[in-house]
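Protocol step 4 of 5: obtain the predicted structure for the target chain.
Materials: sequence only (see below). No template structures provided, no constraints applied. The aim of this step is simply to have a reference model before the mutagenesis design in step 5. Sequence pasted as it appears in the construct record:
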Amino acid sequence: AQTGPTSHVDSYPALTEQVVRRALRIVGAYQSTNSPRPEQLADAIYALNVMLKTWSIEGFLWLRQFITVTLVAGQNSYTLGPNGTPAIDRPTHVFTANKKNSSGSEIPMIALTRTDWFNIPNKTSNGVPVQYYYDPQTINGILYVWPTPQTGTTDVIVLDVDRQLDIQLDNLNQFDFPPQWTDAITYGLAARLAPEYGVPLAEREIIGKEFSALFLKAVNDDRDIASVYMGVRKNELR
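Step 4 output (structure tokens):
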């Protein structure tokens, strides 16, 4: 039975140094009664940021956002990133795109692969854009549409994209993650640091398995919750 009031606080933000210190303790880099050396903290934070950048390709749900690109008559490519309009973080992926007209109606567009885009014989032909291809590049991504918007168009494209994860620049930075990811981040960093600190292979495997379990649990929680409908077409019943 509950014997006292709860804290009524449901968030426990982790700070960079807290996670790094714990990861270093897991690999035996220092004892809790002491403190890690400055170079140990610096090296571990670098490893942490490299790991987080690698995780950016996962397409986490909380990183996704809707952005709007205004179509320009006679223009079939648009910059998505710091040099674009508006200036944003370079999207890692474009998941879907809808063309939206001046009355607010939206029509889904068809995604193209790089080969599909390359094989279009006349990329500058005019018409109503119905297809798109996204080239992520490194600093700015490029969104291509086909056909090229006609003169006088007032349409926009609404994109479902994901931004990149923020890195940890300061020891007191909070993480660009929901709080429930703290354990996965900690053990992920420990798994990366273990070889540098000469952790025996058997212990490294234990740390790795713990990380895998925590990461999988966090990823499974990071999903859309919606019903899935399945059916059979009439002509398939014949």
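Step 4 remarks: Residues 110 and 131 are 5 Å apart (CA to CA). The first strand starts at residue 64 and ends at 70.
Proceed to step 5.
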